[in-house]
Design a protein that fits this description.
The chain is globular and about 45 Å long. By secondary structure, it is of the alpha+beta class. It starts with 5 loop residues before the first strand and ends with a strand. The protein contains 2 helices and 6 strands, in the order E-E-E-H-E-H-E-E. Helix 1 runs parallel beside helix 2. The chain is 20% helix and 30% strand. It comes from Cytobacillus stercorigallinarum. Pfam families: Ribonuc_L-PSP. InterPro entries: RutC-like_sf, YjgF/YER057c/UK114. This is RidA family protein.
Length: 147
């Protein structure tokens, strides 16, 4: 593969606290194919300006936080011409594995009939903000000419 055909862009949709820490999305384009790599998405308020003032939407409700995270993912994907049907890899991080069935139930609802992508589901001791209960990473692939 020739490097001159590969274009890489780092993009931030995040307006706040994480903007200077990492990119929300990396897009790699090569020969008509666009790969979208989303960083972990959670239910944090996108308007928060620093880590110490982050508010977690959905309070302590795992289902609500998961729904918010998936809706944010859908919005980010849509901004780049993709949908959840274009996702080829997903990783879910949760702070309590007892929420596994709720997680996959919400995932199924949000996929709206799209096939479930390959998935890794991990329990972690904590996430970036103590009130976060779930964080989801996705990778999607689309034809560049379609976006």
């Amino acid at each position: 593969m020739s490097q001159k055909n590969v274009i890489k862009k780092n993009i931030n949709h995040n307006k706040g606290w994480a903007r200077d820490l990492f990119s929300d999305v990396v897009i790699v384009e090569n020969n008509g194919t666009k790969f979208l790599f989303l960083s972990g998405v959670s239910s944090e308020d996108p308007e928060a300006t620093d880590l110490h003032s982050v508010t977690i939407l959905g309070e302590n409700d795992f289902r609500k936080q998961t729904q918010i995270a998936f809706r944010k993912i859908k919005s980010i994907l849509a901004a780049h011409g993709a949908t959840l049907a274009d996702v080829v890899r997903m990783t879910g991080y949760v702070t309590d594995r007892n929420n596994m069935y709720t997680y996959f139930e919400v995932q199924g609802e949000e996929l709206e009939g799209a096939p479930r992508p390959p998935h890794t589901f991990l329990e972690v001791s904590s996430l970036a903000v103590p009130e976060m209960l779930v964080e989801i990473e996705v990778t999607a692939i689309i034809d560049s000419s379609e976006s």
